[in-house]
Structures are given as C-alpha cells and as structure tokens.
C-alpha cells in the first residue's frame, strides 16, 4: 500500500491532470467539432475527447512509468476489478443503473466501498459512482473530486 506522502503526490498530480483536461475541453467551446463513434453508435467522441485521453495516458505514463495505465471501457468490469483487488479505485459519473448494479454488489460483498463520487451515499438509480478498496481511499478520492470541482468553479466565477 502507498504511503501518505505517495498518496498526496498522486492526488496533486490527479488535480493537475484534471485541470489540464479542463483547459483542453474549454478550448472546444464554440468551435466546430468532428463527432465520431467509438465502439457503438451511442458511444460518441470528438477530437477534444481524444486529445484529453491522449494527454492523460501520456502524462500518467511519464509520471508513473512503473504503473500500468489502463482504461477498461466498462463500468461493470472496472467494478469487478475493484472487487477482485486488481485496481484500487474506480470513479465515473453519468452512468445508468444497469451499468453499475452488479458491480456495486460485487465490490460491497468483497469488502470494498462504493459511495457517490461527491462523498455521499451511493444512489444506484442516479449513479455517480466511486468504488474503492477501502473507506479511507474512497473518502480521500471523493475529497479530491470535490476540491477540484470547487477550484474550477472559483476560476469560472473570477472570469465573469
């Protein structure tokens, strides 16, 4: 398990990446976008989405070459990996109940924690899902998400 110092480093780096991704997405505002499909007709992506994904993977591999960076592409499979102990934390908002129902059960049965990504109780009917190996990791990740969201909102207010 990582030390507190290492976890703080990871969180700070995650904040940097989140803000950098936000800048890329903000640059798309008001511009024409090329919309493509990924794996199915409802899985849409723009060139800005791809730029964010490429930046995240590149920066994560540079910062943590000893870690395996992966995007599984499935909330259910990601939650199963948390339950199995293969990954420590998974977070994704704007899912549907059928995306997470079985996975939430698996994580909880395995002794993991599933909460709302803002730190509240998980609502399976309106999933903003954060699953983690333990309570502390879940709470610290939710705190990071809330702090970063507030920082972004403050910056937006300063511009107006």
Automatic annotation (TrEMBL):
Mg(2+) binds at residue 99. It comes from the Eukaryota. One of its GO terms (biological process) is inositol metabolic process. It holds the Pfam family Inositol_P. InterPro entries: Inositol_monophosphatase-like (IPR000760), Inositol_monophosphatase_CS (IPR020550). Keywords: Magnesium, Metal-binding. Its cofactor is Mg(2+). GO terms for molecular function: inositol monophosphate 1-phosphatase activity; metal ion binding. Belongs to the inositol monophosphatase superfamily. This is Inositol monophosphatase 2. The gene is LOC107271831.
């Amino acid at each position: 398990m990582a030390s507190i110092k290492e976890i703080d480093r990871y969180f700070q780096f995650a904040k940097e990446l989140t803000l950098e991704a936000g800048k890329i997405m903000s640059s798309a505002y008001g511009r024409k976008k090329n919309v493509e499909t990924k794996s199915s007709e409802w899985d849409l992506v723009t060139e800005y989405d791809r730029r964010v994904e490429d930046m995240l993977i590149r920066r994560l591999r540079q910062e943590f070459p000893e870690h395996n960076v992966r995007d599984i592409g499935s909330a259910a499979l990601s939650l199963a990996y948390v339950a199995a102990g293969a990954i420590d934390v998974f977070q994704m908002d704007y899912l549907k109940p059928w995306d997470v129902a079985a996975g939430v059960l698996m994580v909880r049965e395995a002794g993991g924690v599933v909460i709302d990504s803002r730190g509240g109780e998980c609502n399976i009917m309106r999933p903003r899902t954060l699953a983690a190996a333990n309570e502390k990791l879940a709470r610290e990740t939710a705190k990071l998400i809330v702090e970063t969201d507030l920082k972004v909102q403050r910056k937006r207010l300063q511009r107006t």
